[in-house]
Amino acid sequence: MKQITGAELFVKALKEEAVDTLFAYPGGQAIDLFDALYGEKEIDVILPRHEQGLIHAADGYARSTGKAGVCLVTSGPGATNLVTGIATANYDSVPLVCFTGQVPTHLIGNDTFQEVDFVGITKSICKYAVMVRKREELAETIKKAFYIAKTGKPGVVVVDLPKDIQRAYGSDFYPKEIMVRGYKPKLSVHMGQLNKALEVLNHAVKPVFLIGGGVNIARANKEMTQLAELTGVPVITTIMGKGAIPTTNRLYVGNIGIHGSYAANSAISNCDVLFSIGTRFNDRITGKTEEFAGKAKIIHIDVDAASISRNIDVDIPIVADAKKAICALLEKAKPLEIFEWINEINHWKKEYPITMGEVGMTPQMIIQSINEMFKDAIVTTDVGQNQLWATQFLTIDENKQMLTSGGLGTMGYGFPAAIGAKLGNPHKDVVVISGDGGMQMNIQEMATAVVYELPIIICILNNGYLGNVRQWQEMFYERRYSSTCMRYRRSCEIGCNQPDHCCPEYTPDFLALAESYGAKGIRVTKAEEIKDALNRAKQNTKTPTVIEFIIDREVNVMPIVPPGNSLNDMIK
Amino acid sequence: MKKRWICLFVENEIGVLARISGLFSGKLYNLDSLTVGVTEDSTVSRMTISLTSDDRTFEQIKKQLGRSVEVIKVVDYTDTPIHMKEILFVKVNHCTDADITELFRISKVYGAAVIDYDGVTVLLECTQTENRNDDLIALLKRKFANRIEIVRGGSVAVSYE
Question: What is the pTM assigned to this prediction?
Fold first, then answer.
């Protein structure tokens, strides 16, 4: 049998796994792996400017293509810089395989230069973490990593590769299949439970579907839309579930949760059957759990048994993949006569829409313009107010996808994720909705976007504050704006709690910054300039375009359920 | 709150113990004892875990253990007839003649053995259930306050069938 190095086997394994894009940053303990990749034509090796940007890019690539995102970094700081991205991706069930260089096995434990126990660091934030200790285990371990990352509830797998393993010669065999005895992803649907669920649904007077990210991950959007259409049951989504059915569909009610729509939250509070698929009933969607869907029988389908009856007690639990379960439901479901209930929900939708009014340049106007001008697009968001407005106002259908860090809520996610999304989908428009705070957390990736000639459109909603925290300080902490003003300078008065016309200049100048990287910069201060700016950005097909929207400094995300309250108690 | 027993079959690999104990600490699950040893199959280790929790948390613990890739099987021993024993060493220092007589008497009642004795220090070994060992420790603490040293091994359990 042919003898090859571990590094050569690594490259062979990537090809066998059909990896076309590798997000990679070199270093001392990964140099052999990079050497094996040198001149490689089948794999596009992308060099971001920081490992955190790297892993968010791999995440954006994975979410937008459905394929596993693959990262390669060196040991020590290269690896630790991945940590936030690992937790981000794992929390939102994104399949990533992260290869990290490691010091040679005989030096492990000696406090060697750039040595960290990366498996130890990551095991609580990823699906599986493993160090390859023997050259003969390398092929099987890589196969296992891809299998575990992509199947069941997808997640992140870390493979730590000591340098001596990379250099050691061994077999060139790479397995086609693998069996892991402690890992059995659920492949079937329990028909008895499903029939029970249908029985309950068919007798419902006020039913709703509550759809989480599981349906988007299973790519069951078409089937979910059919199920809604067939049964006539209204659909509410979580942030991660948004787009499970087109937001323009008549049966779509809105998002649930502390910044959800009044109609959606009221429907949850008043429904008699809550049919939920692929959600973990996170605290941001339930509000006070004791009063959550208090009148309803709850059905819960989830691929992860540990997500069922954890936060909310469920009447009918079903452990299954969302797509398989929905397909099985489609065969047996029938139309429900629930006209009064639909009217009730439509009344709420009409009476209490989410709106920011028609005056000034509101985030709503900006996002609605994005809706109008980008029909076939991937939109990534950062975290905070920009994200919440996007989840409120963005329209999503089969041609549009939203990528957002829903579980971990990682600022700095949006822009690098867009780089990965654009690399994976070169023919789609990719738009970032970010805030001025989060944009600065991975701004260095502007260089990546420029050098790989990615015409991403970056919309910065600049209010000069870390807006979401500032909003909480305004509403619940007596306007004590502690460390949230981004225009603060040493010369400012201590204990300032409101913006005025003499606030110091914002730094950086995003336009000059964009230009210095070789990107295009546009500043928008008036509502009538929004569309023109977006249009100019769309015409720029060579470089990224940064559009800085100067928005009202103290604009809030409304409605809101105050902390600790039930979904019924929304401030409208 | 109720006392629970779990028998856990895991891959016999470096780091698995850390992964399982980390799962308990990371999610604030209460852990009373955990023992681990290799089984008749050298690639498989078996853990006996005892803990105290409410029903809801216990269900979550079992599910969380079950979803770990390194875990092969989770068996709930809580309401299963099991043989369960824990090894306990108690060293009693500065013993008088009267103390020694008393210790021999206690060891007889509790089914413990005096396994070492140098004239002033007595070493007791007791392989009993966790509860029985608790009782013995309580008694010795009362009688020989501030001069005993205790080492507990944690329980191991096996089902009747």
Answer: 0.96
pLDDT per residue over A164-197, tens digit each?
999 999 999 999 999 999 998 888 899 999 999 9
Chain B residue whose CA is closest to A180: B69
Which residue out of A122, A124, A148 would a mutagenesis test of the B interface target, given it has the greatest number of B Cβ atoms within 10 Å?
Answer: A124
Partner-chain contact B69 A304, CB within 8 Å: no
Contact at CB, A182 and B71, closer than 8 angstroms: yes
Contact B60 A306 (CB under 8 A): yes
Of A120, A148, A304, which is closest to B18 when you measure between CB atoms? A120
- Residue A401's φ and ψ, nearest 5 degrees, are -135, 145
Give the helix ranges, DSSP H, for A130-220.
Answer: 138-150, 163-167, 191-202, 213-217
pLDDT of residue A360: 79
CATH superfamily of B83-159: ACT-like. Chain A, domain 2 (3.30.70.1150)
- Picking from B23, B59, B66, the nearest residue to A309 by CB comes out as B59
Q: Which CATH architecture has domain A363-550?
A: 3-Layer(aba) Sandwich (3.40)
| Interchain contact B10–A (C-beta under 8 A) | yes
Q: Which fold has domain A3-171?
A: Rossmann fold (3.40.50)
The verdict on a CB contact (< 8 Å) between A182 and B22 is no
- DSSP H stretches of helix in A429-525: 436-439, 446-451, 467-476, 510-517
Q: What percent of chain A has pLDDT over 90?
A: 94
Q: How far, in Å, CA of A420 to CA of A429, rounded?
A: 13
Q: What is the ipTM of this complex?
A: 0.90
Report in angstroms the alpha-carbon separations of A217 from A73, A151, A277, A299, A413.
Answer: 26, 11, 12, 20, 18
In CATH terms, is domain B2-80 a member of 3.40.50.300?
A: no
* Token code pair at residue A534: 């977006």
